[in-house]
Every structure is written in C-alpha cells, then in structure tokens.
Design brief:
The chain has 104 residues and is an all-alpha fold. It is 70% helix and 0% strand. The N and C termini lie far apart (30 Å).
C-alpha cells in the first residue's frame, strides 16, 4: 500500500479521511515505510501547508511520534524552521510545541 501511495503523501494528509489512513499507516508500518512517508513530507514544498491544515497537523504530530533518531531530529528541525509561521497558527502551534518537546 505504501508503494501505491508514494508521491501522494503530501496531498493525502489534507483530506479528512485520507489523513486517517496516513496516520494509520505510520502507526502500523515498519520503520522503513514510516521513514519513506516522512521523508516525502519533509521534502515537499507544501510541508508548511500540511502542518497548518486542520487534518494534516495530526499527520505531522503522528510523524513526530513514529520517527526515531536522525529522522526525528530532522523532522523536528524542519518544523521548528517554520516557527514564525506556526507560532500564532491554531493548528501549527500544536505541531510546533510537539516538535520543540521532541528534540531528542
């Protein structure tokens, strides 16, 4: 399923039902598949839109919970790099707070 959705992981989180699918995949997949999803999100020019989206922000939060090591640090750093855009945004602020607390 991951291979089939590859290339769509930036658009899917911004859909109410599809975001649940992406979250589920991150919860239930092996670490390599989770890393592939998160790398696709991070590399996208629309990543900020995902973080600020009413549904996409949950995917970003799940990504912070499901990643480990270097990728978690990279994800956290990328989110924190949008600090100015996120600090006053209702959905983005939650993701930013989670990224600050998951620097490890």
């Amino acid at each position: 399923m991951i291979a089939e959705l590859c290339g769509k992981f930036v658009r899917l989180p911004m859909n109410k039902h599809a975001s649940n699918v992406v979250e589920y995949l991150m919860r239930c997949s092996n670490q390599d598949d989770v890393n592939a999803i998160v790398e696709e999100l991070i590399r996208s020019t629309d990543f900020l839109n995902v973080i600020q989206d009413p549904y996409g922000n949950y995917v970003a939060q799940r990504a912070l919970k499901c990643t480990k090591g270097y990728l978690r640090r990279k994800l956290s750093f990328t989110i924190r790099s949008y600090r100015i855009e996120l600090q006053n945004h209702p959905h983005g602020k939650i993701v930013l707070d989670n990224a600050k607390s998951s620097k490890r």
